[in-house]
Amino acid sequence: MELIINIFTLIFIVLSLFCLSFFILLLRTLAGKSITNSDYPPVYGTIYGQAFYFNNLYDHLTAVAKRHRTFRLIGTAYSEIYTVDPRNIEQILKTKFDKYSKGRKDEEVCGDLFGEGIFLVDGEKWKQQRKLASYEFSTKIVRDFSCSVFRRNAGTLVGILWEFSAMARVFDVQDLLMRCSLDSIFKVGFGVDLNCLEEPSKAGSGFMKAFDDSSAQVFWRYIDPFWKFKRFLNIGSEASFRNNLKVIDAFVHRLISARRKLLHQPNLNDKEDILSRFLMESEKDPTRMNDQYLRDIVLNFMLAGRDSTAGTLSWFFYMLCKNPLIQEKVAEEVSQIVGVQGEEADINLFIQNLTDSALDKMHYLHAALTETLRLYPAVPVDGRTAEIDDILPDGYKLRKGDGVYYLAYSMGRMPCLWGEDAEDFKPERWLENGTFRPESPFKFIAFHAGPRTCLGKDFAYRQMKIVSATLLHFFRFKLADPTRNITYRIMLTLHIDGGLPLLAIPRARKFA
Predict the structure, then answer these.
(1) Beta strands in 307-373, from DSSP E residues, in sequence order
(2) pLDDT (tens digit, 9 = 90+) per residue, 379-423?
(3) 257 C-beta neighbours (distance < 10 Å), count
(4) Is 60 exceeded by the pLDDT of residue 81?
(5) Which of 492, 473, 376, 479 lies closest to 162, judged by CA?
(6) So where does this one cross the membrane (predicted)?
């Protein structure tokens, strides 16, 4: 009997502490937020309330944004302002660039994973990394080398899909594209042949899974008020996150160590990759640019180089399967420009003719990829933190320390920005007399804008165009299960939840 009483007493104490914590959290959240003050954006809930809509969070935020183009969610110490107004975005990313930073919140939440990489730092560290990366992306040597790698990996993909198609075998195109992009970024960015596409290794597959799961776990931290407590006790999602970090760190540190050894070989000519440049820079200042700093740089560039392209291509093939006439129109453009036709498919001849000049002429393909990014941006939500009290162009005030986030996913679905057909997949909206016509980067925000505009934009388009043109020239694609509901996984980048099972049907009778 005494044992039962003690158990009930313990349960009562735990519940009381939880209720007290919740009450304190509620008071801190509501206090001093000017909830009824119309000078500030209208309140549509709390930051933590997003947990109720977590599985379809971006669509929930879109529904709110259609009611009010700028709104806020309140937290314990600050508010988060969300906007789909291009004027507001231009102010925080360009006009008052130096008055907004990544902020302490992002550093706390994402720091364990991305450390002091380019996406999370400001000031001199950001300038240093951007300067070196800018040089890397702009050199003709790297541009030519990257295209060679992309073409080779696209050819490998064709060979894999040819075997699948011969057996009428269903395959996960997202998994293949992720492995293909990982091979590309590690070769171009870090000078390493992973060969995940041809021979999936246990280490490579483990690294990819650990990285994707960590991305989802980091995102959860933004709406979990108790994540620091869970991290301290090493329980729940934080315990899993810590285990994933061990896998990630071990993999990347092995990469850095191997590359550092190769760097000092006298006859090694391949020193043009991003990692080699940072390694050479680190030898000038080994205390500041230590292996941990290099690890952060590697993970940041891997996020940009793999997730952005592979994720976008996955959604691209989904949209083409949903719109078969557009799929055929893209394939027809590729065939006409590259000029390789006939019943026998020669992959080597096709890749030889897939020159930079040919890619530049593929306006419809470029428009279809851009239309995919409009509806399914690689980074669905992004933003900055106010370093001053400010007033946005739409008239709303915000306080120092508030986060200001632009909803790229929602913006692509706003009739006020794109017309009543905003949610339709329509590549023609990007064309004028058959030529691609860009929009303002503050309206089409998929590649960021202002001084922090994505350095790898052209790099990403080249990779996506080479891979998609090659695959569409040799195959038609169909959804393996047209009745399945395709949605996203909530993480830092926009992946298809559970992958995208497809069937590939050869366009030629014979593969050479």
Answers:
(1) 344-345
(2) 999 999 999 999 999 999 999 999 999 999 999 999 999 999 999
(3) 10
(4) yes
(5) 473
(6) 7-27
Mean pLDDT of 61-83: 92
> Backbone phi, then psi, for 474, in 5-degree steps?
-100, -20
**The pLDDT value given to residue 24:** 46
First to last CA, the chain: 80
Residue with the two structure tokens 């929602």: 410
**Gap between the Cα atoms of 333 and 336, Å rounded:** 5
Sign of the CA dihedral with 296 first, then 300, 301, and 306 last: positive
Sign of CA dihedral 449, 450, 455, 458: positive
In this structure, which amino acid lies at residue 381? V
d(CA 318, CA 413): 17
d(CA 13, CA 23) in angstroms, rounded, equals 15
* DSSP secondary structure letters along 53-67: GGGGHHHHHHHHHHH
For 309-340, the pLDDT digits (tens) are 999 999 999 999 999 999 999 999 999 999 76
In angstroms, the CA 378 to CA 313 distance is 10
Name residue 319's amino acid. Answer: M
- Please tell me the distance from the alpha carbon of residue 29 to that of residue 64, in angstroms, as a whole number: 20
Two tokens at 272?
């043009």
pLDDT for the residue numbered 117: 84
The one-letter code for the residue type at 277 is: R
Cβ(464)–Cβ(174) under 8 Å? no
Q: Which residues are within 8 A (CB) of 131 and not within 5 positions of it... i.e. 6 or more apart? A: none
H/E run at residue 422:
none
Are 379 and 493 in contact by the 8 Å Cβ rule? The answer is yes
Q: Which DSSP symbol is given to 41?
A: P
Task: Give DSSP secondary structure letters for 98-120.
Answer: GGEESHHHHHHHHHHHHTTSTTT
The average pLDDT across 279-285 equals 70
Determine the length of the chain. Answer: 512
Contact 240, 215 (CB under 8 A): no
Name, in order, each residue with C-beta under 8 angstroms of 432's C-beta and a sequence gap of 6 or more.
none
> Rounded to 5 degrees, what are φ and ψ at 177?
-70, -35
Q: What is the DSSP annotation of 462-489?
A: HHHHHHHHHHHHHEEEEES-TTS---EE
Tokens of 30: 């509501």
| Whole-angstrom distance, CA of residue 219 vs CA of residue 381 | 11
